[in-house]
Known about the structure:
By secondary structure, the protein is mainly alpha-helical. The protein is 65% helix and 0% strand. It has two domains: 7-93, Orthogonal Bundle (Rna Polymerase Sigma Factor, Chain: A); 105-189, Arc Repressor Mutant, subunit A.
Amino acid sequence: MVDYQELSDEELVKKSLDDREVFYYLIKRYESKLMRYINRIASVTHEEAEDLLQEIFIKAYRHLNGFDQRLKFSSWVYRIAHNEVINFAKKRKRGTALIHASNNGDTDNMVLDNLAGEDDVHGNFVAMESREQVWQALMELPLKYREVLVLKFFENKSYREMSDILRKPEGTVATLVNRAKKKFLKIASKYQLEGILQ
């Protein structure tokens, strides 16, 4: 008997094409990750987040035949999530960046832990006085900058994966991350969070 939980994403994709019940294992593997991703970059109610998540999985299943085997499934499904969140933002705000309204301690801890894990910011974020202020500063970024920081520091995506998700060259993604960091620091200064990247 096949233990579907032990199969790779790509093996599950192949089996899902023959048996749609197998797609359930991909949903279980990614639903909590994608829900966190949605909540980190978009100001949505719980119901809206669930609707977005459902739409992401419906689109993923419908387009499973078109899955590019050269990509990681995770990059492919995050690309679908990215597109759904952007479309939601455009419908709701007519292109205005969404500001995240909710906040929780786990997310605050994660932003500091992940940002501090980078060589160029190591140890600097740990000294910040208020995790809530860090989160607020991050959420003030325009969506395109907030998203690259979320992908890089929260989701631990490589530049290659981010390139696949955002459909931008790796060099462009690296430039966006650098600009996002600079803009974050500028916003952070009003919260007395200076000296972060010295």
